[in-house]
Write a structure and sequence with these properties.
Strand content of chain B: under 5%
Order of helices and strands of chain A: HHHHEEEEEEEEEEEHHHHHHHHHHH
Largest sheet of chain A: 11 strands, mixed
Structural class of chain B: mainly alpha
Largest interface: A-B, 65 and 68 residues
Radius of gyration of chain A: 30 Å
Structural class of chain A: alpha+beta
Strand content of chain A: 15-25%
CATH topology of the largest domain in chain B: Rna Polymerase Sigma Factor, Chain: A
Distance between the termini of chain B: 52 Å
Number of strands of chain A: 11
CATH class of the largest domain in chain B: Mainly Alpha
Number of helices of chain A: 15
Largest sheet of chain B: none
CATH architecture of the largest domain in chain B: Orthogonal Bundle
Oligomer: heterodimer
Shape of chain B: elongated
């Protein structure tokens, strides 16, 4: 089994693989309704009738966005006429725009490049077909529109932007201390000046975000980023409570707050004074995101001794698993041993014996592995890994030639786990022992 | 945004599949009769009847990251457009399966193209877009599983999904994918070999799959005697 990495001592069989996969998928399918049947039907009806936005149908699109489709058509036609009339639009960098009200009428900004909405939304349509929809109670200003550059300042409220991707254009949206650099995408951006905070809700594509302390990173479609500024009042939530914060943007390690990093999804997660507070995300939250290499990197950069001395048993267990998963058996062993020594009564420490056994077994240290499995089975008789530990212990005894112990363990195994994955091996051992007993009778 | 406005009137390379994936029952017979009569009243009935099947096929084939709602809509738009081509009540179900697998295949190919050009960060952050499950390890395992499945050739992937995940027998898989039985077997063997190798190299997933299989086997063992009595 040369292809196996440390920590995986027994290869899976096809049946086991299929059973495990099917079960995983079935659990996913049955653990909650993630597909809204009626919404899908509504989508089908809309597509079949050629209607994309039906007011009465349930939709993920905010109500204030829905009017935009027909208005956008009118605006695009008006814009096309204007661009054609004035000979603009031949070069994507010659950006122009028109602003359209709900009624379809064009709105004149009187040269101020500033718009505010009260009860009705406004649509800004650019000559490259990008659109920015202003929700009610929103104020924006267009700081620059020249040489393919657009600088949009969101002073308050919420916008829905759909930016066409062109190499020659450069759209940036400023919300308080944050700037969103667009690379061809669709997103919502909101900003509340009294709190200095907002929310970036990406629907498609990607954007780069920078904040008061520089680049924050890239945010991709489906992700949300809380733009947390210095609040006017310390007790106020940094993000409107009705807006769940699911996932943070790409960020530099140590530059994000733990609450948003965990993707907690509630308003309380955003009750932090600054997005740049230097708090390390928990290993548990990183493990949830499968960022195992980052866990190991963090532990090593902080110094393993310090980490072992300060982290909880659960966090140390996550570190050990992460080390195993990235092939760092040495580090995993060190962490697990420390866990056992420093927190001997914790459940994480008791399970640590099982994993120490697996690592030892993968390293060819059979006796050491057997010892660890024994400790685990004894200390956690009802533990999650007992079947595996017992089966592996049995196999080790058989491999070492101690058939008496192997048979005894096989009987024990069959009694406790009659349908377990080591059933065949256990049956073979007990039958062999029975045959031998009859022969010698 | 994907262009979803063009329906999928008839699978281009999949012939309507001969019966039976399941023999036409009375519901299919009624549906067939309504389709023949024309009008649109049958569409809601067909949707209610086949929504669970289509949803299951799509999610099992494409994993939790699938934009399932759009794809389910693709299937039904295609089905509603072309159902009048069905010639027998016994073929309704298999026709739906064929359209679904055609949509899945198209999506797999689209993903492969996209992955070819896409950013590494997208993969890194994909876990954030997996809808939440109660078990964080299940979430990660599902993500790893989807990633590994996505490395398969689309046809191998579909064979594995239908046979192993959807529990269809090989003959039905061959019908649904318009392949010969021997091709299905060959593709299944190749998919299994590749997946076993990849999963064995992934301690997290192999741990999870093994534990999961073991737990479920123990549960089914508890049901065993009852099943025998019944």
């Amino acid at each position: 089994m040369s292809s196996e990495k440390k920590g995986t001592a027994r290869s899976l069989g096809e049946a086991e693989l299929g059973r495990g996969f099917r079960s995983l998928m079935d659990d996913y399918l049955t653990s909650g309704e993630r597909v809204d049947k009626e919404r899908v039907f509504s989508q089908i009806v809309q597509r079949r009738t050629g209607l994309r936005a039906v007011e009465s149908s349930p939709s993920r699109v905010p109500r204030w966005v829905r009017w935009a489709a027909p208005v956008a058509v009118a605006a695009a036609a008006a814009a096309a006429f204007a661009f054609a009339f004035y000979g603009l639009g031949s070069d994507p960098r010659d950006l122009t725009y028109v602003v359209t009200a709900h009624s379809g009428a064009q709105v004149d900004d009187q040269g101020s490049h500033r718009w505010s909405t009260e009860d009705e939304p406004l649509l800004v349509t650019f000559s490259d077909k990008s659109t920015v929809l202003l929700a009610p109670k929103t104020s924006v200003n267009l700081e620059v529109v020249e040489s393919g550059k657009v600088r949009f300042g969101l002073e308050r409220g919420r916008i829905h932007a759909h930016i066409a991707h062109h190499e020659d254009t450069d759209y940036r949206f400023r919300a308080g201390e944050y700037e969103v650099f667009v690379t061809g995408t669709e997103f919502d951006l909101s900003f509340e000046p009294s709190r200095g905070s907002g929310l970036l809700d990406m629907q498609e594509g990607s954007v780069e975000v920078s904040g008061p302390k520089g680049r924050l990173g890239r945010v991709l479609g489906g992700e949300k980023l809380a733009l947390v500024g210095a609040p006017a009042k310390a007790e106020e939530p940094a993000v409107p409570p009705h807006e769940p914060v699911k996932a943070p943007a790409a960020e530099e390690p140590g530059e994000r707050d733990d609450a948003t990093a965990s993707g907690a999804g509630d308003a309380s997660s955003a009750r932090v004074p600054s997005a740049h507070r230097s708090v390390t995300p928990s290993y548990r939250s990183l493990a949830k995101q499968a960022r195992f290499a980052e866990i190991v990197k963090d532990a090593e950069s902080r110094g393993l001794k310090a980490v072992l001395a300060t982290k909880s048993p659960e966090e140390l267990a996550e570190l050990a698993h992460a080390a195993r998963y990235v092939g760092r058996g040495d580090l995993a062993t060190r962490v697990l041993k420390s866990l056992v020594q420093s927190h001997p009564t914790s459940s994480a420490a008791q399970s640590a014996h099982f994993f120490l056994g697996r690592i030892a077994e993968a390293n060819g240290e059979s006796q050491k592995a057997a010892r660890e499995y024994d400790i685990y089975v004894k200390s956690r008789p009802g533990g999650s890994y007992v079947a595996e530990a017992l089966g592996r212990r049995m196999a080790l005894a058989q491999k070492s030639g101690d058939l008496s112990l192997a048979t005894s363990l096989a009987r024990q195994y069959l009694k406790r786990f009659p349908s377990g994955p080591y059933r065949a091996a256990a049956l073979s051992l007990t039958e062999q022992a029975e045959g031998s007993r009859l022969l010698h009778r | 945004m994907r262009d979803l406005s063009t329906p999928n009137p008839r699978p281009a390379h999949l012939k309507p599949v001969p019966p039976p994936l399941s023999l036409g029952d009375s519901a299919d017979a009624r549906l067939f009769s309504m389709i023949q009569e024309g009008g649109t009243a049958w569409q809601r009935l067909a949707y209610d009847q086949y929504f669970p099947l289509v949803k299951g096929l799509i999610i099992r084939s494409l994993g939790p990251m699938a934009d399932a709602e759009d794809l389910i809509a693709d299937v039904f738009v295609g089905f509603f457009e072309s159902a009048s081509n069905i010639r027998s009540p016994t073929r309704v179900r298999s026709y739906v399966v064929s359209i679904t697998m055609n949509v899945v295949r198209r999506e797999l190919r689209r993903r492969r193209r996209r992955r070819f050009f896409s950013l590494v960060e997208e993969e890194k952050r994909a876990v954030d877009r997996v809808p939440s499950t109660d078990d964080p390890k299940a979430k990660v395992a599902l993500l790893h599983l989807s990633r590994i499945l996505s490395t398969l050739n689309p046809d191998d992937h579909l064979v594995f999904a239908l046979h192993v995940l959807e529990d269809m027998n090989l003959e039905d898989v061959a019908q649904a994918l318009d392949m010969s039985l021997s091709t299905v077997k060959r593709r299944l063997r190749r998919a299994n070999e590749r997946l076993l190798r990849r999963v064995s190299q992934n301690p997290l997933l192999s741990d999870y799959v093994r534990d999961k299989g073991e737990r479920d086997e123990a549960l089914s063992a508890e049901d065993g005697p009852l099943k025998e009595v019944l």
